[in-house]
Amino acid sequence: MNTLMQGFDETAEALELAQNRLEALRNRVVADDPVEPSTAAPEPVKARFQECLARVLRHEGGFVDHPSDPGGATNRGITIGTARHYYGPNFSVDHLKAITNEQIEHIYHAGYWNLHENQRTGELFHCGMLPMGVDYMVFDCSVNSGPARSVMFLQESLGVAVDGVFGPKTLSAAKSDPASVVMSELYNRRMAFLRSLSTWPVFGDGWTNRVEGVYKMAKEDLVNGRQ
Length: 227
Known about the structure:
CATH topology: Chitosanase, subunit A, domain 1
Strand order of the largest sheet: 1-2
Largest sheet: 2 strands, antiparallel
CATH architecture: Up-down Bundle
Structural class: mainly alpha
Mean pLDDT: 84
Oligomer: single chain
Helix content: 55-70%
Number of strands: 4
Distance between the termini: 76 Å
């Protein structure tokens, strides 16, 4: 009987040891597994982007191919050249006419909301980092006149070095300067630039309505403290 009980004890001990080793192995695998960083934007930032995008799209309208527009065929504010940058050279005008909401959101987020990625650190600088109201004005200008020019207008408004690259110094100045003053400067600089364009006689009225509407809504955002 003692021999039999000893055998049971040894078997139980071996089983427990095996279970402990298995648990240790599981823990090691979990600890060693690479963890993919989350690329999803925090919900408030994502919601703000979608709110600003909805506003931008109200200005952009549907498909147009105006002979005076150097961008060529355009749908929902996305030119054929921009669409091909993201979806390849075979993206045709017919594809542009049928562009999906998912494709539209991807292009606007990657190309106009995101303003700069530090290639050394991987840090991403985007409109959602800016104060309320300023974020919308910079985003809309980014869509209408290009991200680099929009950042240059912001930097000129802030009195910092103008290089068209949105980084820590520009962000710090944007957060410290009064948003109402920055927005007024952005409005004036944007309008001055648009008036200087040769296509102002053709598109001037539409541009004015857009920029004034954006400025008005940005001021409302600031007053209401929406974030």
